[in-house]
Design a protein that fits this description.
Helix content is about 30%, strand content about 25%. It is α/β, with parallel strands linked by helices and about 230 residues long. Strand 4, helix 2 and strand 5 form a beta-alpha-beta unit. The chain has two domains: about 120 residues, ATPase, nucleotide binding domain (Nucleotidyltransferase, domain 5), CATH 3.30.420.40; about 100 residues, Nucleotidyltransferase, domain 5.
Amino acid sequence: MSQKIKLALDSSCPTLLVGVQDGTKIYSFRRSGIKQERFVLPLIERALQKVNATLSDIGEIFFVRGPGRFTGIRISLTFASMLQSLNGAKVASATLFEILYKQVQNSAAFSKWQKENPQGKVAVALHAFREEYFLQFFDGTNTAPQWLGKGELLQKLAACKEPLYVAGTDKDGASLAGLLGGGYRLAPVADNRVRVQTLLEMANNPIYSKNALEPLYLKPARFELKP
């Protein structure tokens, strides 16, 4: 094969996402279920069959490095490390916050909202565990992501003085509308679901190659060590 294959992988969530790109051809597959380590390789091989390729033909891999399920993040991390070692594959990764923010930036809905709210900023909120959530603001300074209780999340959002465009999902991938109520512009459903095309596009930006094998797990604030 004259051209190396690009692989996109997201195992941070309950639904495993695999995509391959061969030139202009892109194929993507999703599979839900626990024990992703058992079917990640068969799903990747299924995707590679669409472009008549094998694991040895993968020259680049882009994956989601967190936050999310600990075991899921390790699956992508381990596979990317293996490809780098065996194939010399280029490795890049991004956080789920960065990926959803990228999808928001590319959307017509956000462009229209931004024209009406030039001082507004974006927040990405994701369900973490039980009544806890992940949160990161994007406003030019891009504050560090946090793991917060439900009450803390609502307080953080309410304290924002600028108009907010919020992306992300609640429990089981549900809309944030039931959690947040009115007062915020919520991203369309399609922009809250990771797309293979977005991962492959971000793979072309060298910034995501830096520290690509460093996972983002996050910890609840109450468990962080205090100075």
